[in-house]
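New to this. Explain the following:
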Amino acid sequence: MNPAELQHDSDDLQVLRWRADFPILETQVHGKELVYLDNAATTQKPLAVIEAVSGYYRHYNANVHRGIHALSQRATDAFEAARAKVQRLINAASPDEIIFVRGTTDAINLVAQSYGRSRIKAGDEIILSQMEHHSNIVPWQLLCQQTGASLRIIPVDDSGELQMEAFYALLNERTRLVAVAHVSNTLGTINPVRRIIEYAHAHNVPVLLDGAQAIAHLPVDVQALDCDFYAFSGHKLYGPTGVGVLYGKAALLDAMPPYQGGGNMIRTVSFEGTTYNTLPYKFEAGTPNIAGVIGLGAAVDYVTGIGFDALAMHEQALLAYATPLLADIPGLRIIGRAREKTGILSFVLEGAHPHDIGTILDTQGVAIRTGHHCTMPLMARFGVAATARASFALYNTRQEADALVAAIYKVKEMFER
């Protein structure tokens, strides 16, 4: 056996150990072993996360903050420990810069309605890219309708990369914010966010990064990036649904008005007026998703225990293995061939609608995503209504990539009869 084969065997054993942590991967679909390749939509959850959520409800279910009884104190400690874990994960300067929200969408809306409403006015401009998820388009459109500002769009080239010269030309004295995806959820493109941030900051323009598709695949250091805001969802990081994070620089968050009013985000309340709580609680109105936050903390422990170097190396190797296999299928066209990308393969197949592809693949036990992936402007850019999308995670294997390819050939057989 040659060294490359030995390395593959070693890698396969490691992935099998990771897979053993995910109970759902033992599921059968239509009598076949589940091949779960819909990770860009949501990742599966390791047993450690499931047990953390269950453990909260079984052993110390109570509301957090202000409670003096033992269960409340234990819940508060676990909740705030999760905040500290997220701070370390993304290297924020302080736990106070970590705001718990419902997800990436909620985080971006918070920035749009708090930072945006207080600072952006008629005639101002916000720069987005052509590859943005609807969650990083619609909140800014709403803000523009409210304020009279306008959007400017960075185009995407045929390979699925941002046209940076166009970005440089778009940014001007009217630009008040740049909001772009760290990684495209449809193309897998890893955007040159350092260059974007450096250029924007040279013109005193803040930058928000949508990190939903980056957080589980790349190491993120918000201080090294120097981004002003960073948003991500827990469920794409092997954590629970309904919980996410907004990171913001403390000086910006301090100056922003509250986004929602209610309990916990206040210091004093009278009918004559209200004073607000300190960071991060000023933006966390009401009872939070306590179990979700604790589960997110367990997910952070899980991925950091593996290490992003090992995780990224495995996913990149899997992408390198699967890409030529798909590209060799007659009539199949991969949408998005960026030089730097994560493990996402979006494609169209001649003669077959993506929804039909997804339906037939499901009969083979292969779960992928089909549709516009909440990136309708990007679909229009590539002249398609929808794509089929396979997306990899740490528990996927080369054998599962083979199963994907075999299932696509079954699609071709059915449509060629």
